[in-house]
Amino acid sequence: MKAIKIDKRFYKTLFSLALPIAMQNFISSSLNMVDTLMIGKLGEAPIAAVAQANKIFFLFTLMLFGINSGGSSFTAQFWSKKDVKGIRKVLGICLISGGIAAIIFSIGAIFFPNQLMFIFAKDAEVIGLGSDYLRIVALSYLVTAVTFSYSILLRSTGEAVIPMVISMISLGVNTLLNWIFIFGHFSFSPMGVKGAAIATVIARFIEGGLFIWIIYSKQSSLAASLKEMLDLSFQFVQRFYRTTIFVILNEFIWALGTTMYSIAYGRMGKEAVVSVSISSNVEQIAMVIFFGLSSACAVMLGNEIGAENEERAFAYAKRFAVLGPALGIFIGIFVILVAPLILSIFNVSREVYLDSTKIITIFACFIPFKVFNLFTIVGILRSGGDTTFGFLLDAGGVWLIGVPFAFIGGLIWKLPIYWVFALVCSEELVKAVFGIYRLFSKKWIHNLVNQME
């Protein structure tokens, strides 16, 4: 109770950041979720195809999140000292790094879609439909990289409303175009999976264009010239990547680990893939508020550390560590109650429906632990530049516990998909134990701005 005492300054800042960020995260993730929901009306094979094709996008966005999450730690601390030049240099590094990642992923998705889909599925129809979707949607990867950089770094300067509004517009466009292209309205022929991909590409380009237009018309702190973004010394880049490289590795290696889960589920059959894919949509909705809160945590702690208020940063960290899991308990109960309503949207077999219900229930039980680990790694450790420990904690949990259990439980023990999912989730318990230790050690607190100077 002492940790969550009423502090007007704390809660005012928290909600002014967390609510818009949570809403934007929900809307951004909904761009792909809307595809899955609408495609769900076409049957199980299209659902599995779009869900598995989006695993590539998932890998890509987690890499972008790693790059820009590391950048946001610097941006938050630079912003506490109103160092706009430093922020614009960070933006330049993030845009270049994200652009390179986008080009690599685009080449793979456009020229080798069948080979990539074969990694995630064994059903020929799923591979064919997924390849069609992947080849088109890859055209949006580069603009997505630009959008990520502007959105995440803008939030680190306290501007959380602009990304939220732009994402709302993008979601509206995507939903409308999905309805037109997938099912064939306004004289368009029904395009199914290809229509969903085209709608997503158009929505992403509109989103990116709006970001650039608003930022430069408002002359925001991110309205950098090309010269300002490229005014990078070797020492600046080296110190940036010394911290950020472990965030990038963390997200990428964690993403590879969760991709291995998908491979294991894919080898268990189409029904297992569909059950997990449907459940993942519920997970995205349930966790969206916590992604917002963890991002707000990173900004608030980064501002305090940059301003050299280390004791206040530690007090805030303890408060987040209590608030997150407490709220997670209530969200878990809510998820269990609304699961039947959400599952009724999908046109699936009775077996898939029951398996999805059990997976969602198991997920709900693990939410408090997932939230604590999210706040610890993304919000607390990264805000203080303790990215090495965060990397070891996150990657270790996935690769030493989650991945082995996914393959052993699913392919050797032949357990039902919901029990395999429960084994995979057990990694959260182990990570939480080490996360508590690191939080109270205070070894995560580092002033990144002073290191740059």
Question: Residue-averaged pLDDT, rounded?
Answer: 86
Strand count: 0
Q: Could you give a short account of the major beta sheet?
A: none
Strand content: under 5%
Number of helices: 17
Helix content: over 70%
Rg from C-alpha positions? Answer: 21 Å
Pattern of helices and strands = HHHHHHHHHHHHHHHHH
Membrane topology: Multi-pass membrane protein
InterPro entries: MATE_fam (IPR002528), MdtK-like (IPR048279), YsiQ (IPR047135)
Pfam families: MatE
Subcellular location: Cell membrane
Task: Briefly summarize what is shown.
By secondary structure, the protein is mainly α.
Q: Can you describe this structure?
A:
This is MATE family efflux transporter. The chain crosses the membrane at residues 56-78, 90-113, 133-153, 160-183, 195-216, 245-264, 284-301, 322-347, 359-381, 388-412, 418-440. It is found in: Cell membrane. The protein has 453 residues and is an all-alpha fold. It has one domain. The chain is 84% helix and 0% strand. It contains 17 helices and no strands. The protein is globular. The mean pLDDT is 86.
